[in-house]
Design goal:
The complex is a heterodimer of chains A (212) and B (131). Chain A is an alpha+beta fold and 212 residues long. Chain A has 2 domains: 26-46 and 161-212, no CATH class; 52-157, no CATH class. Chain A has helices spanning 57-69, 75-80, 114-122, 172-180, 183-187, 194-207; strands at residues 6-10, 23-29, 32-39, 43-49, 84-94, 103-108, 124-136, 140-149, 159-165. In chain A, strands 1-2-3-4-9-8-7-5-6 form a 9-stranded antiparallel β-sheet. In chain A, strand 5 and strand 6 form a beta hairpin. In chain A, helix 4 (172-180) crosses helix 6 (194-207). The model of chain A has no long low-confidence stretch (mean pLDDT 87). With 131 residues, chain B is mostly beta strands. Chain B has a single domain (4-129), classed as Immunoglobulin-like (Sandwich), CATH 2.60.40.10. Helices cover 0% and strands 62% of the residues of chain B. Chain B contains no helices and 10 strands. In chain B, strands 1, 2, 3, 4, 6 and 8 form a 6-stranded antiparallel β-sheet that branches. Chain B has a 4-stranded antiparallel β-sheet with strand order 7-5-9-10, with no helix packed on it. The mean pLDDT of chain B is 95. The chains are: A alpha+beta (212), B mainly beta (131). At the A-B interface, strand 6, strand 7, strand 8 and strand 9 of A face strand 1 of B.
């Protein structure tokens, strides 16, 4: 496996002054921008050019992501112990036959309703936003938000973004999941040790002091 | 419906319509007026700075705007708002009045800047309204 450098550099704000309530940084692999990191007093957001299968949207959000968000849970436990995921979704659907309304926005306060299922099954998803809470009696809860743009409808963008709480730093498993859904990593056939990225990102999050 | 149209960019959803009491209506009523509604929804995980403009470009026009906001004219208006992530804003302070004959295009141009990822996008929507 070829070794690549991963470095994080703070992005200069326009005008040169950093805002007191957030820090923006760019993660580079071999000096090429790969991952945007936006840190606020309570959250951090990772965004990257994605390679994402929208047919697997729910599988990714409700099965794959919870597994990699638990840094203290053994994998067998995550697979076999009961857990609940609840929250809301906003889905932009594409209507190719409509000149007047080529896109529609559907908001669902509760995921899992028959109406939500129908939209997910029968409509073309152009953009998705989920605000979710995962709960398990054994491992407590995690809050996470996720957005995905479908390049089939937005030719300029396939960006994926994940927002997490700062008290839950990213895991190596999360970065491994992220690498598998990265256009940059796939197109360049790159392999990177996720533990290196976890360590550097965790350090950056710890060292970023911000005021609300 | 020619007087109600939508458009979208990644993380942004915009609806423009001519409305009477918040309901889309394509013809200015005989004894009343319509309003130009633009709804901007920020679906990204970042806060957004939104600049929204309405235009009537035809000369001579068959419709005109009436706004109490300084800087707005009978042919164009501007609204500015900062939106937190996953929030929306409906601009509806501008009245549409009939001043001629013939169907008119009203153009909405919405520019959104997301400062955190340093991204910007502009969406344009044209609706058709009858005086």
């Amino acid at each position: 496996m070829a070794q690549y450098d991963f470095e994080i550099h703070v992005v200069e704000e326009r005008g040169g002054e950093q805002r007191p309530d957030r820090s923006v940084a760019q993660g580079y692999i071999d000096e090429k921008p790969f991952l945007l990191i936006v840190v606020t007093p309570r959250t951090y957001t990772l965004s990257w050019a994605g390679q994402f299968n929208f047919q697997r949207l729910e599988r990714e959000l409700f099965h794959e992501l919870p597994l990699v968000l638990w840094h203290n849970a053994p994998r067998w436990a995550a697979r076999f112990l009961p857990f609940r995921i609840f929250g809301s979704a906003a889905l932009v659907t594409a209507n190719r036959d409509s000149e007047d309304e080529p896109f529609s926005l559907r908001r669902f306060e509760k995921i899992g309703s028959p109406e939500y299922r129908s939209v997910l099954r029968n409509q073309r998803i152009a953009f998705a936003r989920y605000d979710l809470k995962f709960w398990s009696g054994l491992f407590g809860h995690r809050t996470y938000s996720f957005t995905a743009a479908n390049p089939e409808y937005y030719s300029e963008s396939s960006t994926l973004a994940l927002q997490l709480q700062r008290r839950h730093p990213p895991t190596a498993e999360l970065f491994s999941w992220l690498f598998d859904r990265s256009k940059f990593m796939r197109e360049n056939n790159l392999r990177l040790d996720p533990h290196v990225v976890e360590k550097q990102t965790g350090l950056f999050l710890r060292e970023t002091g911000l005021h609300a | 419906m020619k007087c109600k149209r939508t458009n979208s960019a990644p993380g942004l959803f915009v609806t423009s319509y001519s409305g009477y009491k918040n309901k889309a209506m394509c013809t200015v009523p005989a004894n009343d007026h319509l309003r130009h509604h633009i709804v901007v929804e920020n679906l990204q995980l970042y806060d957004a700075d939104v600049t929204c403009q309405g235009f009537i470009r035809a000369r001579p026009p068959s419709l005109s705007f009436l706004s109490t906001v300084a800087g707005d004219t009978s042919m164009n208006w501007t609204g500015i708002v900062s939106l937190h992530q996953d929030t929306s804003k409906e601009f509806q302070h501008v009245e549409i009045h009939a001043c001629g004959a013939g169907r008119e295009n009203i153009i909405a141009e919405v520019t959104v800047v997301w400062p955190d990822p340093h991204e910007q996008t502009t969406l344009s929507i044209s609706i058709e309204v009858n005086p």
